[in-house]
Amino acid sequence: MQPDLIVATHSGITAEEYGVLSQIAPTLAQSGEFDDFGMPWQEQTRVIGQALGRSGEAEALIADVERQIEAAANPAFAGKTIAWITPAAAPGKFGVTGPNTPPMRFLATLGFAYPTEVAESIGDQWSLRISSERLDLIDVDVLIVRTPTQESLDAVKAAPLFQQLQVVKDGRVIFFVGDDPIYGALSFSTVNSLPYVIEHLTPMLLDAVNKL
């Protein structure tokens, strides 16, 4: 591809991989200050802007998106708990996305709170593996569920322990299947994708909160 620049700010590349990539072209790796895939979108934008000689434009983009986030932070979101789960490969197991990931940090800027008990269990990990028997941990105000296929989503919805959650009974669950563009935009949480998240996900979050 003969790139002039390789951007790997949202990654978990190793020192060995960085060495290979940097022989192809200048490579922007994730800062060592953050966990893998955990570099804040503002810092990613600044590093890329600096590498391109467009720092001023990068700062303008950051400021614009931050204004959009501030405007989207509905008072109804303040203090409401939110969690994000994905079914694991093993039957009856789920992965709970950690609070220090880009999507959960974004949701926090809207005013949402991460469930305390889960935060204490997950610590600095990227995610927490729980069994169906501990789904009570994510019986929160708003729950996001992402599954790779419709079949796996149907299996989650049919699980008796999932059906018993109050958040499920009240219809305060937001479902994403496969490569849903809202899921992708939230998962990566970049300066380009967050405006899309604000436009399309915020109304869904407000609808869920209004069912409390």
Describe it.
This protein has 212 residues and is of the alpha/beta class. It has 2 domains: 6-72, no CATH class; 75-209, 3-Layer(aba) Sandwich (Rossmann fold). Helices cover 45% and strands 16% of the residues. The protein contains 10 helices and 7 strands. The strands form 2 sheets. A 5-stranded mixed sheet has the order 5-4-3-6-7. Strand 3 and strand 4 form a beta hairpin. Helix 2 packs antiparallel against helix 3. The longest helix has 18 residues, at 55-72. The protein is globular and about 55 Å long. The model has no long low-confidence stretch (mean pLDDT 95).
What is this entry, summarized?
By secondary structure, the chain is α/β, with parallel strands linked by helices. It contains 10 helices and 7 strands.
Keywords for this structure?
10 helices; two-stranded parallel sheet; alpha/beta; 212 residues; 2 domains; single chain; five-stranded mixed sheet; Rossmann fold
| Strand segment tally | 7
In whole angstroms, the N-to-C terminal distance is: 51 Å
Reading off the top of the CATH hierarchy, the class of the largest domain is best stated as: Alpha Beta
> Average pLDDT value?
95
Indicate the structural class.
alpha/beta
Strand order of the largest sheet: 5-4-3-6-7
- Uncertain spans, ≥5 residues at pLDDT below 50? none
User: How would you describe the shape?
Assistant: globular
Q: Within the CATH hierarchy, at the fold level, what is the topology of the largest domain?
A: Rossmann fold
In total, the number of domains comes to 2
**N to C succession of SSEs:** EHEHHEEHHEEHHHEHH
CATH superfamily of the largest domain: Nitrogenase molybdenum iron protein domain
